[in-house]
Amino acid sequence: MPARTNAPHACPIRDVLDRVGDAWSVLVLTELAQGPCRFNALGRVVAGISPRMLAVTLRHLERDGLVTRTVLDTKPPQVEYTITARGTSLHAALGGLVDWAARHQVAINESRQVFDTKV
Hints:
Number of strands: 3
Oligomer: single chain
Order of helices and strands: HHEHHEEH
Shape: globular
């Protein structure tokens, strides 16, 4: 058994959860799984994300090799983001979680309301 270390990101689970556990990465990857998207279009479809947070999220996803950034030869220049093969494999792995969330969201919200009326 390998020795435990306190080195940053020594645990693969923690390393990946740092990315997929943030507020926006899964939503951005889900949108990009539908096809390439420009920055402003992503900002419109990922409800509630600020331009700054979208830029930070995309930068992190690009750094991790989950998306690619392409500057388009247009006037004015525009940027398009595409999910990579690694990002697609992560999106597939998250598919069960995404489906589960969609199936149970209403019931969870109802449970929250019941709980909140008791507190």
